[in-house]
Design goal:
Length: about 220
C-alpha cells in the first residue's frame, strides 16, 4: 500500500487489522502531530504494518489477554514527527535511535525490523497509586510472561512504559525506569548479563495478581 495522501486512503489504512484487538489507527495518534500540523503517516506502510503486527502478536495481545485492557499513549511516529520531537525536546530520541522502535517504517542500524508502543496497563493503575508507585511487580511480571519483549522502560505517570519488539534474536533485552525505587540502583532493573535476569520472579507480583484475580504462572 502506498503512503496515504487523502482522507479516504488514510481511513482505509487505519482500518488495517494488526491483530485480534488492534487496528493501525490505534497507533497513529500523536500530540506532536496534532500541535505541529505534521501528518503522522508512515512512508513505508508495508513495513510499518508488518512490524506493528508482530508487536501486537508477540507483546500487546499477551499483555491484554492476561491483565486486561491497555491504553496506548504513544506508538508509531513518522520520521518527520519524531524529528520535530527530538529537535524541540519533546522527549523523543533522534531518528537514528528510533529506527525499528517508535519509527516502525525504518529498520534499525543492524537491519532488523522492530516496533515500540508506550502503553498503560489499566488494571495496574490503582495498585501502583496505592503502593508508593512501586513499578517492580509489573516489570517482573512482564519479564516472566512476555518472553519476546526487546526492551522495556517505565515512566512515572500511571506507570506507563515503552515496550518494544524486535526481530533480532540477539537484542540486548533490558528493563529500565525513570521511577526511583529503593531496591534498584540507577535506572536499570535487569539485563541479559545480570544474574537477576534469570529464574522466576513471581514473589514480586503475586499480591498484584491476587488483587485482579489472576493466578501466577
Amino acid at each position: 500500500m502506498k503512503s496515504p495522501k487523502s482522507v479516504k486512503s488514510l481511513e482505509q489504512f487505519g482500518r488495517t487489522r494488526l491483530s485480534e484487538n488492534f487496528f493501525m489507527r490505534d497507533f497513529l495518534y500523536s500530540e506532536i502531530s496534532q500541535i505541529e500540523s505534521v501528518p503522522n503517516i508512515p512512508d513505508d506502510t508495508d513495513l510499518a504494518v508488518q512490524a506493528g503486527k508482530m508487536l501486537c502478536k508477540k507483546v500487546l495481545e499477551p499483555i491484554r489477554e492476561k491483565l486486561g485492557r491497555i491504553s496506548i499513549r504513544s506508538a508509531f511516529r513518522s520520521c518527520k514527527v519524531n524529528d520535530i520531537g527530538a529537535k524541540k525536546k519533546f522527549n523523543c530520541a533522534n531518528n537514528e535511535s528510533n529506527y525499528g522502535r517508535h519509527i516502525w517504517d525504518r529498520r534499525d542500524s543492524d537491519g532488523f525490523m522492530g516496533a515500540t508502543a508506550c502503553i498503560i496497563v489499566n488494571s495496574y493503575i490503582d495498585y501502583y497509586e496505592n503502593n508508593s508507585h512501586d513499578w517492580l511487580p509489573l516489570a517482573w511480571w512482564l519479564h516472566d510472561n512476555i518472553t519476546e519483549y526487546a526492551s522495556i522502560c517505565f515512566f512515572p505517570k500511571y506507570c506507563a512504559f515503552n515496550i518494544s519488539w524486535n526481530e533480532n534474536p540477539d537484542y540486548h533485552k533490558e528493563i529500565s525506569s525513570w521511577i526511583k525505587h529503593p531496591e534498584v540502583k540507577g535506572r536499570i532493573l535487569t539485563k541479559k548479563s545480570w544474574n537477576n535476569f534469570y529464574g522466576n520472579h513471581s514473589d514480586f507480583y503475586i499480591s498484584f495478581l491476587k488483587q485482579i484475580n489472576i493466578e501466577s504462572n
